[in-house]
Specification:
Layout (H helix, E strand, L loop, with lengths): L2 E5 L3 H13 L3 E5 L2 H7 L7 E5 L7 H9 L9 E5 L4 H9 L4 E4 L4 H13 L1
Parallel strand pairs: 1-2, 1-3, 3-4, 4-5
Helix pairs in contact: 2-3
Keywords: Phosphoprotein
GO biological process, one term: phosphorelay signal transduction system
Protein name: Response regulator
């Protein structure tokens, strides 16, 4: 069973996504902020990080930078979920090492399909 670190500050979306992922046979560890996610990463190495970009305190962009500089975490694939829609934001995400950028609103089956494809690579 693949382990997903889900980072989303909106409670309802975080809980809904966690439930959808669990129903699709993923183990989910949920965090409500980039800071909380970094704390989780001190004890757990997930197979993939699924994260919002716009969060209070630390953005997803700042979080991926912190993860990618740690040698034992740098290999973890990232998928961003965001309300940001500009090509500049998408290009920034990709340049920071993000594998995929999903724009909100999204279909849950698309997220599951993309996670599965990313983990199968």
């Amino acid at each position: 069973m693949s382990k997903i670190l889900l980072v989303e500050d909106e409670t309802i979306l975080r809980e809904t996504l966690a439930e959808i992922l669990e129903l699709n046979d993923f183990e989910v560890i949920a965090a409500s902020s980039g800071f909380e996610a970094l704390e989780v990463l001190k004890d757990t190495i997930p197979d993939l990080i699924l994260s919002d970009v716009l969060m209070p305190g630390m953005t997803g962009f700042e979080m991926i930078e912190q993860v990618k500089i740690q040698e034992h975490l740098a290999h973890i694939p990232f998928i961003f979920l965001s309300a940001l829609t500009s090509n500049d934001d998408k290009q920034k995400a990709l340049s920071l090492g993000c594998k995929h950028f999903i724009t909100k609103p999204f279909k849950s089956f698309e997220v599951v399909k993309l996670i599965t494809a990313t983990l199968d690579c």
